[in-house]
């Protein structure tokens, strides 16, 4: 039982390049989330998926897109990376609804030059 | 817009000290308040407090929720160097499309010196 896994662990991009961050969970959770963490700003929600087949914007969605591929997988795509997207990205999952305790993956550290 | 504010933002103590971390919140339809500990990587879950459970304790860590005054505290007694981490507070919203989402505070960076 791996919990929540993320790939890659670390990535360097040039401005304008695109990439996809992958996330998978094996806890049969309904809901999945993408956050970014910047110094002094806690965790900010980018996008979330309350259940398979649905996605919604969070607090800071600009510059990102997501895909809920199936119940297990939720990917985050940067179409044209900008230096402001340099951050640590966390994926999380929860049972959904009243089961709001979220479990986090190990994070992806992204540097955009 | 839901809002969570933690204080202090950083704290340096020595082993054996007792610390109190604060979390205040404004949320339209409060459902729960959660505490997480973040060491080098992913946040890990500590406690969840709701209307039906306003006090939790696990070893040297304890937390209370004051729904009237809209705040929570996390106490750590007899601190150890392994308690050094970022402590995150989050609130869950029970309303509409926000159901199941969490809003996080900025975090408190705790450093425990030997």
Report on the structure:
The complex is a heterodimer of chains A (113) and B (114). Chain A is mainly β and 113 residues long. Chain A has no helices and eleven strands. Chain A has strands spanning 4-7, 10-13, 19-25, 31-37, 43-49, 56-57, 64-68, 74-78, 87-94, 103-104, 108-112. In chain A, a hairpin with a 5-residue loop joins strand 7 and strand 8 (74-78). Chain B is an all-beta fold and 114 residues long. Helix content of chain B is 0%, strand content 61%. Chain B has strands spanning 3-7, 10-14, 19-26, 30-38, 43-50, 55-58, 61-66, 71-76, 85-93, 102-104, 108-113. Chain B contains no helices and eleven strands. In chain B, the strands form two sheets. In chain B, strands 2, 4, 5, 9, 10 and 11 form a six-stranded mixed β-sheet that branches. Classes of the chains: A mainly beta (113), B mainly beta (114). The A-B interface holds A 4, 31, 33, 35, 40-45, 48, 50, 56, 58, 90, 94, 96-107 and B 4, 6, 9, 31-32, 34, 41-45, 48, 88, 90, 92, 97, 99-107.
The DSSP helix count of chain A reads: 0
Examine the secondary-structure arrangement and name the CATH architecture of chain B.
Answer: Sandwich
Average per-residue pLDDT of chain B, rounded, comes to 91
Q: What is the succession of H and E elements of chain B? A: EEEEEEEEEEE
**Which regions of chain A contain 5 or more consecutive residues with pLDDT less than 50?**
none
Topology, element by element:
The complex is a heterodimer of chains A (113) and B (114).
Chain A lengths: L3 E4 L2 E4 L5 E7 L5 E7 L5 E7 L6 E2 L6 E5 L5 E5 L8 E8 L8 E2 L3 E5 L1
Parallel strand pairs in A: 2-11
Antiparallel strand pairs in A: 1-3, 3-8, 4-5, 4-9, 5-6, 7-8, 9-10, 9-11
Chain B lengths: L2 E5 L2 E5 L4 E8 L3 E9 L4 E8 L4 E4 L2 E6 L4 E6 L8 E9 L8 E3 L3 E6 L1
Parallel strand pairs in B: 2-11
Antiparallel strand pairs in B: 1-3, 3-8, 4-5, 4-9, 6-7, 7-8, 9-10, 9-11
